Amino acid sequence: MSVTSQIENITALSISDTDKIQKYFEVFNGIFLGKENITTIHEFIEAVIKIPYGASIIRVVFNNLIDALKAKNINWELEEQILKTLIDNLAPMLMSFEEQDIAVRQRLADLYEQHDENINASVILEQGINRRILTDDDRFDWYIRIVRNRLEADDATNAEGFLNRAALLRPKIKNVPPASIVHFKFSQARVADSNRNFIDAARKYYDVSTTMDVAPEEQMVCLKSAVTCVILAPAGPKRSQVLRLIYSDDRTRQLPDFGILEKLHTNRLLRPEELVSFEQELQPHQRVSLPDGISVLARSVIDHNMLAVSRIYSNISIEQLGRLLGLDKNKVEDYAGRMILQGRLAATIDQVDEVVQFINDDDFSRLHLWEARVRVLCTDLENIVSGITRQEEVLAAKATAPASV
């Protein structure tokens, strides 16, 4: 007897719903769960979904089916096919079976994650994210799970979109476990890292590394990521703030890259040979070349060494600076000019004499004082001119007025 006929015969019996559910499941248990029987399994699902006026029974049968698949530990590709068949058959009556659809999607996402099919895991969750019965807390968890899968697949662009949606939901969540908040913050750090926003990434990684809900070994992983990102970040005041924060953490002394971190903090020159092992550990997105053909790390080192030189010299020829930085004269002038324009280097360039004049803190103070005095002088002169103009207008008005009789 076909599976469909067995289901129809059970449906026609005058027995309780509980007994019917048990018999329906006996039919399923009688099917050998092998690839050769996938058609029979599909037939069972299609027959159950067609039980007339049986929504409550169908829900229980499918819930039991999902639990049974987890327990039986069958071939994962076979389970994938069964779960996808369930989703397809539930779709036309989704309004009545949202809970089962969600359970199937979560189980299918579990399978995909276990087998490193992160894009498939993300897509199956994305397709169910708008189910009405999902609470804000549930949806927040789903968004974070989607983000993590997208990041595992090196898809930072889509990950950022779903992370932004999670951020909008965050003020509304009520009972999300602390682990979800940690994953949210960690995802923010990873997205910033993937987008090469290294200053923001370093700050966020460090934030996670100090969170009590994170295991000590994972805290150290995040701290190491924070150190990596602050080394890669463009030198300047913004990086210095984060650098001071990270360097002041005693745990950094345990990290292999502490020597580099210390040189950054103390404004000492970095040599290429000191960065070999560090560069080998970088992720692919951290190794990319910038539009001018130079790597992110090389740009960061040049910027840092430029600032380090500014702490040693009050002025230096462009040629000599090039020798220190390992660059030709034109590149030196370009990089120094860019840093000056971005407010990351206090200096001026004398293109005639080919000299870079660095401005130290005292020079800055004197310069600001001089500028302030010039502004006061200009204001005073403007007031004097305005006063003279008003007096001339008054005298002119009196001169043209008719004489009184």
TrEMBL record:
- Can you say where in the cell this protein is located? Cytoplasm; Nucleus
Spell out the GO cellular component terms annotated for this protein, sorted alphabetically and separated by semicolons: COP9 signalosome; cytosol; proteasome regulatory particle, lid subcomplex
* InterPro entries attached to this UniProt entry: PCI_dom (IPR000717), PSMD12-CSN4-like_N (IPR054559), PSMD12/CSN4 (IPR040134), WH-like_DNA-bd_sf (IPR036388), WH_DNA-bd_sf (IPR036390)
Q: What is its main location?
A: cytoplasm
- This protein's UniProt keywords: Cytoplasm, Nucleus, Signalosome
- SUPFAM superfamilies registered for this protein in UniProt: Winged helix' DNA-binding domain
Domain named PCI is located at 196-363
Which family, according to UniProt? Belongs to the CSN4 family.
Spell out the protein name for this chain.
COP9 signalosome complex subunit 4
